[in-house]
Amino acid sequence: xxxxPATPLDDVLHAFAMAKAVPDPETLEEFTRNYPEYADALTxxxxxxxxxDAIPDEAEEIGDSETVSPAxxxxxxxxxxxxxxxxxxxxxxxxxxxxxxxxxxDMDRARFRSVASSLHANNTFxxxxxxxxxxxxxxxxxxxxxxxxxxxxxxxxxxxxAYFKGEQVIARGQHFKSDEKPAVSRRETFEEAVRNSGLTPxxxxxxxGL
Amino acid sequence: MPRALNKITKGGVGYQRPPAITASIDAxxxxxxxxxxxxxxxxxxxxxxxxxxxxxxxxxxxxRLSGNKRAVDRLLPPLLARCEVRLKRTxxxxxxxxEGMRDDVLQAFCxxxxxxxxxxxxxxxxxxxxxxxxxxxxxxxxxxxxxNNRIKLFRNIGEExxxxxxxxxxxxxxxxxxxAAQTPAGQEDFVYLAEMLEAIKExxxxxxxxxxxxxxxxxxxxxxxPDEITAATICGISGTAVxxxxxKAAEKLKAR
Lengths: 210, 256
Prior knowledge:
The complex is a heterodimer.
Chain A lengths: L8 H11 L5 H10 L4 H16 L15 H26 L13 H10 L4 H8 L5 H5 L2 H11 L3 H9 L24 H6 L5 H9 L1
Helix pairs in contact in A: 1-3, 2-3, 8-9
Chain B lengths: L18 H11 L3 H8 L12 H13 L3 H22 L7 H18 L10 H5 L1 H16 L25 H8 L6 H14 L4 H12 L14 H5 L3 H17 L1
C-alpha cells in the first residue's frame, strides 16, 4: 500500500473493509497513517464496520418470499430507469469510437514491437490491446498499466482510457478463412489476456503488478 | 471457474473471492434458472441449499453481461429483498427518514448493477462478490455521511429512568457505548467500541438484545406512543422489561 492523495475514498474504504474480517485498531492506524486525508472518514467507517459485524443476519425476519415489498419494487423501477440511462449514455460514445484517435494507427512494425518490448509484453498481447479484445473495465481499473501505456505511447492517459473503452472492432484489411461472417468474440479480462498471450512468467508478473 | 474480478488494490493484487464463494458460484453456474431462483429465495443461511448473496450477485452480473434479461428480471428481486432485510437491521425504523435512507442505498446498489455490461465502471461491485455485507456497509456509510450528524438519530440512554424514576445507567456505561456507536467518531471511540462489543457478546441474550437495539441501533427502550417502533415492540416485551435488561447489562459491563 502506498500513499496517494489521488486515491478515491471508495477505493480506500474498500481496501480497509477487505483488510480484516473485523477491523482492529492496528489496521485503522495503518490506514489513517497512509491516507491522512481520509483519517476521519476511515475512523467513522471503522465504527460502522464494527457495528455491522455486531448485527448478524437473522433468517426469521424474512417474510413471504413470493411477494415483492414496496421498497424492492421501487428499487427495481429505479434499476430499469438506470439501465435505460446508462445504455443511452453508452450508445453515444460507442457510435463515436471511429472518431477517437487510434493510438496504434500510425505505428509501423518496428515501433509496434518497440512499445511491446517497453511494456514487457509481446505482439500477441499488443494486438489484443489494439483490437480492444480486453474488457474495458478490467483495463481501466489498472491505473498503473494505463499510465505505463500512456507513457510509452506518449499520449495523455485520458486518450488511452478512451481508446480502451471503445467498441471492439474487426480489423479491416485482414483476410478471414471462414464460411461464416467474422464476428467479435467475447472479450477477455486483463488477467486472462495476460495469462493467454504466451507471455513469460516474468512478463506476466510485471504486467499484473502494474 | 467464475469470471475473475477486475478490481485491484494499490499493491497490484487482485480481489479474490473466498474459496467457499468460488465453489458456490461454480455449483450455481451449472444449475438452470429455476433452480437458481429457488435457492435465491432461501433466506436462512443454515439451510443446505442457501445461496450466499455474493454468489447471487455474481449470477445477476453474469446475466447482465450476457444480455440475459429474463435471468436479471427473475434473480434481481430476491437479491434486493436480501439487501432490504440487511438495511432494515442497520438503518432501523427508529431513525428519521429511515425508509428514505434505505431507498437511497438500494438505488445506489441498483445503479452499480445497471452499469454492468456497459462502458461505465462497475468494478465497485467486486467487493460485494467477496464480502457482500461489507459492500453494502460501504454504500450505507456513504449515505450516512450525508447526514453528517448521526447523533441526532440516537435516543440519549442517560435520560432513561425506570418505573421508580431511577436512572437505568447511573455510571454512564451505556451512554458512553451509545456515543461511541455514533458518528463522527474518534479513534479512541473505535478502540473502546471494539472492546465493548466483545464484552456484549458475553451478556445473556435478553440483555444483549436490549443493548444492541438501544445503544447500537438507536431505538428507544419503550414509548407512550403505541405506533412508535421501540426495543420493546421489537422484542415483544414491555418498556419496563427492556429498561431492567439495560440496567443489568450496564452493571455487568461496568464491572468488567
